[in-house]
Amino acid sequence: MKMRMAILTLSILSLGVILSAYSFVNPLGPTVLPVIAIDEKKLGDLEYPQFSIWKNPEEAIALLSSGKVDLIILPITLGANLYTKGIDVALIGVHEWKVFYLVSSKDEEFEGWKKLKGKKIYTAHGRGQTVDVLMRYFMVKDGVIPDEDIQILYAPPQEVVALFKSGKIEYAALPEPFVTMAISGGKGKIILDFQKEWGKVTGLHPRIPIAGLFVRREFLENNWDLVKKFEEILTASIKWMKNNPDEDLKLVKKYLKIPSPILKESMKRMEFDYVPISKCKKEVLTFLRKMNELYPAGMPKIPDERFFVDISIH
Q1: Cα separation of 192 and 189, whole Å?
Q2: Does the 21-98+210-313 domain belong in CATH 3.40.190.10?
Q3: What is the reported pLDDT for 20?
Q4: Sign of CA dihedral 57, 82, 193, 122
Q5: What pLDDT is recorded for position 52?
Q6: What is the percent of the chain with per-residue pLDDT over 70, rounded to a whole number?
Q7: Structural domain boundaries of the chain?
Q8: Strand 71-75 vs strand 23-27: parallel, antiparallel, or unpaired?
Q9: Within 13 A of 121's CA, how many CA atoms are on the CB side?
Q10: How far apart are the C-alpha atoms of 47 and 233, rounded to whole Å?
């Protein structure tokens, strides 16, 4: 009996590298790039979380609702909507800032939305996703009526890329790495950086709070110091990605089937930088208010102050 207990104890101890007191879930996609060092434990002797991936919003919602996740990366709009619908999550920082671009099949420069009157622009998925709302906002600011002056059409991103590369469409508004896929081989060019346009129109930084770090409030209230430490881990992981891009690309192959050359090129146009909410709250609120103003069906309510948590002040 003692021997069995000893073997059991040794077995449990040997699992120490994979057992964790908390969990972290990240979306499947390019946002794996800045966190793969956490999954692979590349940051030294730290208290790493149990790492897993969510593949669609429904999966993320189920994990949060059941209390099976502690820390999670979500699009800012999704996190805000979940909070206003009663799922008690808090935003503690933003880490993805740059990913959206307008591409053209012609060798031209962007001279304003009025110059595109009568044209069609394809974008990924459906009405209300971030780049769609931003594009409509920019058009209205330039005196253009969306869907009348310029037709906006929707399709899965892979389909938009295929249509663009085959020469069947002239313009596409896409996130990376689909931008790089579309223009690879000299099939077109980027004519507008949505992040720079956002900064120009709003007077804020030329970046967009796209995705960030959320925490279940119940977990936060009992593990404040652990969440603080995870902020440091996430910051270190992003830095590791920037310092080790080639190794990072090799490691993410287990999740992403996108060719490494495409991902490497697209990384030049993606920006990951962890900013605690205390330093970007104004940007997030401006973004959410604009989403609510332009597409209330997709962003029906702005979160209250409780949604934002500065964990440094605890």
Answers
A1: 9
A2: yes
A3: 67
A4: positive
A5: 96
A6: 93
A7: 21-98+210-313, 100-202
A8: parallel
A9: 27
A10: 9
| Integer Cα distance of 197 and 281 in angstroms | 20
| Cut 0.70: pTM above it | yes
**Which pairs from 255-260 meet CB under 8 Å and 24+ separation?**
255/28, 255/32, 255/36, 255/53, 256/28, 256/29, 256/30, 256/32, 258/177, 258/181
Q: For residue 150, what are the contacts with CB-CB under 8 A and spacing of at least 6? A: 113, 116, 117, 118, 119, 120, 121, 139, 144
Helices (H), 44-129: 57-66, 76-84
Numbers of helices and strands, H then E, in the chain? 13, 11
Dihedral angle at the C-alpha atoms of 14, 33, 134, 112, nearest 10 degrees?
Answer: 170
Whether the CB-CB separation of 245 and 272 falls below 8 Å is answered with no
Strands of 48-126, DSSP E: 50-54, 71-75, 89-98, 100-104, 120-124
Structure tokens that stand for 20 in this block:
């964790």
Q: Which CATH class is domain 100-202?
A: alpha beta
Check if 21-98+210-313 and 100-202 are the same fold: yes
| Regions of the chain where pLDDT drops below 70 | 1-20, 314
Please state, in angstroms and rounded to a whole number, the distance separating the CA atoms of residues 100 and 106.
Answer: 19
If we measure between CA atoms, which residue out of 176, 186, 185, 246 comes closest to residue 211? 176
Listed in sequence order, the residues at least 6 apart from 161 whose beta carbon sits closer than 8 Å to its beta carbon are: 172, 174, 178, 181, 182
pLDDT at 297: 81
| CA distances for 87 relative to 62, 84, 224, 303, angstroms | 10, 7, 19, 12
pLDDT number for residue 11: 39
- The Cα–Cα gap between 15 and 38 comes to 17
Question: Quick one: tokens of 196?
Answer: 């720079």
| Per-residue tokens: 71 | 């820390």
Structural contact between residues 286 and 204, judged by C-beta atoms closer than 8 angstroms: yes
Cα angle 135, 138, 141; round to 5: 150
